[in-house]
Each structure stands twice: as C-alpha cells, then as structure tokens.
C-alpha cells in the first residue's frame, strides 16, 4: 500500500517563507498585475447570463439565465466560426510545432558557429514584424496582378493563368498556416535549441561509438533528450488551440472568404462591438475558455498517466 504523504508542519512552512521573503516580495507586483488584468475582468462574465444594457450596468440588466447560450448553440454562424477556429488552430499547431522542432534539430547540426548564429538571427526577424506588414506582404505575393507566387508558377508551366488565392476558399486555411509558420518558426525554436544545448555530450560520443550517424544521433539522442520539453510545450499550446490568429483571418478574410475566415474572436467582435450584443459575445468567449481549459487538463492528465512530464 502507498504511504500517505505527511503534511508539512505549519512552522516549517512559515520558516521557508521567511527564508525566501525577498522572492515572495518580488512576486507581489506580479500577483497584483495578474489579479487586475486576468481575474478581475472575469466579473464581466455575468453579462452572459443577462440581457446586458450598458446604461443599466451589471445589476440593472435583466437576468435571463442560459438564454444567450441556447441562442448561441442554435446559431449556424457560431458553429461555422467554431469549425474555422478549430481547423486553423489545429493546422497551425501541428505544422508550427513540427517545423519548430525540425528547424531546431537542423540548426543543431550546423557545425560552423558564425553560420549558425546568422541563421538563428535571420529566423527570428519575422517574429518582430507586425501582422499588418506580414499580411500586406502575403497579399502582394499572392496577387493576380504580377504577384511573385503566380509569376513563378506560370514560369514553371504549372498554371496557365494567375490563381485567385485570396478569393478562393480552398486556399485560405493553408495561407494562414503558412503565414504562422514563416513568422513564428524561428522564435518557437528557441526553447528547443536551449533544451538541445543541455543534452550531455557524452551521449553523442557513445552513440557515435555504436556506429550512429548524424540522423541516428538526432533520432536516438537529441529527440529523446528534448521529449519532456516537447510534451510540456504541447500541453501549453493546446490551451491556445481555440485562439486562432485573429489578425490574419480578419485582415485577409474578405467577403468572398467569410464562410472560412470568420473565427470565434471575429464572431465576438461582430456581435459585441458592431451589433452591440455584449451578452452573446461574452457567452461565446466563456464557451471558448471552457473548451481551452478542458483541453489543457485532459492533455495534462494523459501525460501524467503515461508517466511523461506534465504541468501539474
């Protein structure tokens, strides 16, 4: 039978706090900031259960219970936004995750230190560009009027006339995925590069003695060495799976692409700011948050059961 974990005496707890009092004092501003900007705004969730009117406030508005949620779940537009959000988020998660890991592995194989540093620096630069600039570049590259992509495809003989990339629904999710990969791959690889740097070099020497080549060392030493980092980051990223990039679908999603570009965030903006139905917008936001929490806890529980690293 498993022995029960003994509770730590209260005196020892206070002693630890006293020993690390400077750290706890430094933590106070962070706690205040988190409370003001992350927890206090949750009081606004009460709007989802009311027919909220700004002039009447929280306590003056009529309480309607779950009526907003019923209307939300019966709205075809909401479920279309849900589909688009999940599709774009899952595609971004899978491809961005894989590209960041592969990039870190390949970067680790570069033996020339100056070349390695230059490659790293160049790969980080897109992260610091605003999405407005990135979307403008994508729009120019995919333009039917002398766009670089169409010109290259026509020169290679793959197409006879320019394709309307930003007017055809079947291309849109792939365009948003490519935009995220190009912008964030270098930045996302930083943690993996740091984890690779912490792997014991003697493991590579042992693998080399066993006859492992570059790919063998990468597969049997590097990947197992960063497995825990990969799992923790996967759990954290799953918490954001409902937060598909707002900027790209909003900027590039024209009227022709409305059916595939509208995400839950755009749905909330539309009903909250444009139409003024703050209650419905809040209900959609709550639903998105609950799904995100469920995904994080579920993935964390699976990781625990499999004996892998987890957040809790």
Task: Report on the architecture of this protein.
The protein has 16 helices and two strands. The protein has helices at 10-19, 21-39, 57-60, 67-74, 76-108, 113-124, 131-141, 148-155, 169-197, 201-209, 214-225, 227-238, 247-252, 258-261, 264-275, 278-305; strands spanning 50-51, 62-63. It has a two-stranded antiparallel sheet with strand order 1-2. Helix 10 (201-209) runs antiparallel to helix 11.
Q: What would you say about this model in short?
A:
The chain has helices at residues 10-19, 21-39, 57-60, 67-74, 76-108, 113-124, 131-141, 148-155, 169-197, 201-209, 214-225, 227-238, 247-252, 258-261, 264-275, 278-305, and strands spanning 50-51, 62-63.
Task: Name the features.
312 residues; single chain; two-stranded antiparallel ribbon; flat; 16 helices; mainly alpha; disordered N terminus
Discrete helix count: 16
- Side by side, the strands of the main sheet go 1-2
Major beta-sheet overview = 2 strands, antiparallel
So what's the overall shape? flat
Order of helices and strands: HHEHEHHHHHHHHHHHHH
- Helix fraction bin: 55-70%
Secondary-structure-based class equals mainly alpha
| Mean pLDDT score | 86
Q: Could you tell me the radius of gyration in angstroms?
A: 25 Å
Give the total of beta strands. Answer: 2
Give the percentage of residues in beta strands: under 5%
Low-confidence stretches: 1-5
Q: What separation lies between the terminal Cα atoms?
A: 23 Å
């Amino acid at each position: 039978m498993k022995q029960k974990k003994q509770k730590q005496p209260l005196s020892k707890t206070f002693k630890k706090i006293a020993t690390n009092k400077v750290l706890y004092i430094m933590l106070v501003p962070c706690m205040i900031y988190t409370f003001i900007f992350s927890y206090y705004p949750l009081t606004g969730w009460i709007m989802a259960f009311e027919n909220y009117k700004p002039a009447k406030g929280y306590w003056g508005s009529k309480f309607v219970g779950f009526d907003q949620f019923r209307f939300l779940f019966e709205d075809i537009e909401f479920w279309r936004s849900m589909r688009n959000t999940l599709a774009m988020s899952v595609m971004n998660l899978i491809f961005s995750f894989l590209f960041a890991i592969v990039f870190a592995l390949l970067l680790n194989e570069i033996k020339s230190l100056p070349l390695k540093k230059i490659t790293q620096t160049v790969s980080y630069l897109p992260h610091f560009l605003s999405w407005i600039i990135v979307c403008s570049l994508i729009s120019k590259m995919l333009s039917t009027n002398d766009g670089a992509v169409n010109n290259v495809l026509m020169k290679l003989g793959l197409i006879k006339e320019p394709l309307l990339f930003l007017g055809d629904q079947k291309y849109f999710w792939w365009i948003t995925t490519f935009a995220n990969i190009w912008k964030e791959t270098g930045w996302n690889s930083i943690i993996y590069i740091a984890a690779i740097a912490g792997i014991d070099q003697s493991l590579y020497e042992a693998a080399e003695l066993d006859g492992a080549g570059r790919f063998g060392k990468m597969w049997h030493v590097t990947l197992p060495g960063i497995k825990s980092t990969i799992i923790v980051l996967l759990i954290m990223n799953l918490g954001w799976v409902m937060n598909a990039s707002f900027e790209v679908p909003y900027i590039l999603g024209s009227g022709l692409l409305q059916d595939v570009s509208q995400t839950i965030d755009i749905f909330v903006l539309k009903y909250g700011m444009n139409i003024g139905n703050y209650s419905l917008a809040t209900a959609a936001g709550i639903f998105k948050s609950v799904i995100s929490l469920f995904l994080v806890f579920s993935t964390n529980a699976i990781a625990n059961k499999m004996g892998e690293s987890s957040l809790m």
